[in-house]
Amino acid sequence: GLAKNSVLPKELVIVYINERAYALEDDYPFAINTLEIETKGDLNLAEARNIAIKNSSSLFNIFLDVDCIPAKDLVELYLSYADKKNTLLSGRVRYLKKGFADKSDWMSRLMENSRPDPIRKEIDQYSYELFWSLNFGCSKETFAKIGGFDQNFIGYGAEDTDFGFSARNNSVDHVTVDALAYHQYHASYQPPLNHFRSIILNATQFFQKWKVWPMMGWLNRFEASGYIIFENNEIIILREPSEEETAASLIE
Questions:
Q1: Are residues 120 and 219 in the same domain?
Q2: How far apart (Å, rounded) are the C-alpha atoms in residues 55 and 49?
Q3: CATH number of the structural domain spanning residue 115
Q4: pLDDT tens digits along 116-125
Q5: Could you tell me the residue range of the domain that residue 198 belongs to?
Q6: Is the peptide bond before 191 cis (omega within 30 degrees of 0)?
Q7: What is the DSSP string of 90-131?
């Protein structure tokens, strides 16, 4: 996707978490810098993003999750805002349908084979609460002013919202642009019972820091299912989901 962009990036930095870097089969028209990090237990996505920008040779940087395919004008659109100082840029995301890559000439049919994000589709400018890291851009200076990603958030949940809150707390502007990425299809858990423990830990960490609960949609589902209760601004775990319950929440 990046190799087909209207404006090519200077380089691509890929961070492999708890796995070895593997050779890419094609030759690409930009430098590729591969990094490897080891984290104990759950993935530390915050650490990976901090290391990525630290090892970038560019003053302005675009962050894309590895399961996102950029639209052909993504780099060009981001660069048109690159001179904006003190600004965190959020791009837009569409979700690709199951089997999208089975269709002929699928790279040119991403729009028709995808759907908009259901939460953000009618929103022109995302709030700080709706910042997400799978498609965004900013300068190294702005990233440093925000303070980077908080590496105390480990595993699934809350590090994105924390980054958005830190941007607001440090008086960094948040601007949503039409730089579009397509999120590749994969099965998911609804609710994400497979990340139950990390969601509870990260939600608690977030509340202690900001005095407001994140991920209330998931936490309310957990409470309604009898897994947790809220008591005196704490989450009390009544029981953890069973393997059968977790498996039943998987949506193909």
A1: no
A2: 10
A3: 3.90.550.10
A4: 999 999 999 9
A5: 188-251
A6: yes
A7: EEEEEEEPTTGGGSTTGGG-TTTTEEE-TTTTT-SS--GGG-
